[in-house]
Design goal:
Number of strands of chain B: 0
Radius of gyration of chain B: 37 Å
CATH architecture of the largest domain in chain A: Orthogonal Bundle
Largest sheet of chain A: none
Order of helices and strands of chain B: HHHHHHH
Helix content of chain A: over 70%
Oligomer: heterodimer
Distance between the termini of chain A: 44 Å
Strand content of chain B: under 5%
Helix content of chain B: over 70%
Structural class of chain A: mainly alpha
Number of helices of chain A: 9
Number of domains of chain B: 2
Number of domains of chain A: 2
CATH superfamily of the largest domain in chain A: RNA polymerase sigma factor, region 2, helix turn helix motif
Structural class of chain B: mainly alpha
Chain lengths: 178, 137
């Protein structure tokens, strides 16, 4: 962790609101990219994003600074997003498909420009991938982590990450061509 | 197309290759138009994925996080003080009672003569027959 981050964390631990806000502002985009990448746009995305930061601030005393704040937050965001996917799967099993979500309204609220057809197609394609492939693709291609960092984050061998990346991209190409 | 060379092409974009593999891929790219096309398509796909990402939550996100943090803290502190006092007193009693119960059950089961295991699981034939008897009206 670099000294400036260390200083912010120290201040946040002491309960300085400005430090808390600074951490949120600095890492909101990264967390959003991870959560939206894995879950797609939807109303629960904001909730998962908030919970990511709440869990981070709650565990601030345990944060030893071995990794960057962003990496730590991304790890929490991944876990929460994957749990949400499991919840959706359980819901689907017992109650059938969830009611359609108003994705456009969410995008408008999020201040995103209306996605072009190509972007929308890619997003839909991503959502069709198995979570294990989607996660590595989001972390590598959207968040820009190296395969070594991803391996560490997910507790996987680097070779597995590389192979999931390759297979994930190949599957995504097939989905988009179909 | 050779699957190994395709695999190498994918891998080359995410991790440095061994010298030998790098040369092999370079040579294959020079020789194969199809492989070059694959590389272009792959790079374009990666670019599109990166650009497709949503990168923000609805406005006021930081404020909502702070409210949520304070909300959960408040909910913790807002527990009725009387209830908290009762809970603090009751908790050790409940744990002690549970421990005593476990010890008593374990002791009773271990002392065969007090409550023989075969008696616990024994169902006499007579009882079984009675149970299976269907009354005729």
């Amino acid at each position: 962790m670099d000294p400036s981050e260390y200083e912010i964390v120290k201040r946040a631990r002491l309960g300085h609101e400005d430090a808390v806000k600074q951490i949120i502002d600095l890492h909101e985009q990264q967390v959003a990219a991870t959560v939206i990448g894995i879950l797609g746009f939807g109303p629960e995305v904001d909730d998962i994003g908030q919970e990511t930061f709440v869990q981070f601030f709650r565990s601030l005393d345990k944060f030893r600074g071995d990794s960057q704040i962003g990496t730590y937050l991304t790890r929490i965001a991944i876990n929460l997003s994957l749990n949400e996917l499991k919840r959706r799967k359980r819901y689907l099993r017992f109650h059938g498909p969830e009611p359609p979500q108003n994705v456009c309204a969410y995008e408008e609220r999020a201040g995103q420009e209306k996605a072009s057809d190509a972007k929308e197609m890619i997003r839909r394609g991503l959502q069709k991938l198995e979570p294990k492939f989607r996660t590595v693709i989001v972390l590598r291609l959207i968040n820009g982590y190296t395969t070594r960092e991803i391996a560490k984050m997910l507790g996987l061998p680097q070779g597995t990450v590389l192979s999931r990346l390759a297979r994930g991209q190949a599957k995504l190409r097939e989905i988009l061509k179909a | 197309m050779d699957r190994r060379i395709l695999k190498l092409l994918y891998r080359s974009l995410d991790s440095p290759l061994k010298k030998k593999d790098e040369e092999w891929l370079k040579k294959a790219l020079e020789e194969s138009e199809e492989l070059r096309q694959q590389k272009i398509e792959l790079l374009s796909l990666r670019q599109s994925v990166a650009e497709s990402a949503g990168r923000s939550f609805p406005p006021g996100f930081a404020e909502r996080v702070r409210r949520r943090m304070h909300g959960s803290q408040k909910a913790k502190n807002n527990l009725d003080p009387q209830f908290r006092a009762y809970r603090a007193v009751f908790k050790p009693f409940a744990i002690a009672t549970l421990a005593i119960l476990i010890i008593l059950v374990a002791y009773t089961v271990s002392q065969d003569e007090l409550l023989p295991k075969d008696k616990i699981f024994y169902v006499s034939d007579l009882t079984a027959k009675k149970l299976l008897q269907v009354p005729v009206f």
